[in-house]
Task: structure prediction
Amino acid sequence: MTLETFFGGLSPATLTAALALVFGASVVRGLTGFGLAIILVPLLGLIVEPAEAVVISILLQLLAGPIGFKRIMADGERSTAIPISIAAIMATPFGVWLLSVTAPDVARLAIATLALAAFGLMFVPAKEGAIPGRKETLATGLAAGVLTGFASMPGPPVVPFYLRRKLSPDVARASMLMVFFATAIAGSIAAFALGVANLHLLWLSVLFYPALYIGTRLGELAFGKVSEPVWRTLVGIILGVAGVAAVVRLLN
Result:
């Protein structure tokens, strides 16, 4: 077995770049509760095919789910996270199917648009108010499921659902991570069942796990030690860079 074969077909330099991307996205995930796929998929798509980047991101979300799970379950808003998760699980296979029949260039365009949309959501003002009703909760879950399967990005509908309600960072972060773990489980099963995922991509995800784990833990250590305005600003900058990078890839 050659070294490149062991590295899942990637050269050492390419693997190093991919590990750096996974590490950076994982730090953001640990700090904010979201952002892994929104950051990773457009940038990892510069190295591998868009569908492969989506599957790797889904598998990494699955591997990241157990990290800090006890705290997530304790802090999360289960009354909304559970119904959103159920709806998302139901819709995820449709998103995976949509990915399998979409041309790579179209997928790149859609993913770039989602990345920019996620950046724009950071500027949506928060608001006081009661828990959203069933229709909004269901719509959030269905949208999150479709976007999980198609782009491994459940964040665009889920993030504003929680952040615009002015919940405490602990509750918002944990609730989002609960949903993302559920969508990762559904997305992984659907990806393998529909033939989009394979053992090669699973092996690459395993190779990326150390960077994922260390990055997530470092992000968790930073969580709660920065003010909310700084927290939002940092995430906004990173999301903006990811969106711009995806657009640049399209133009090139």
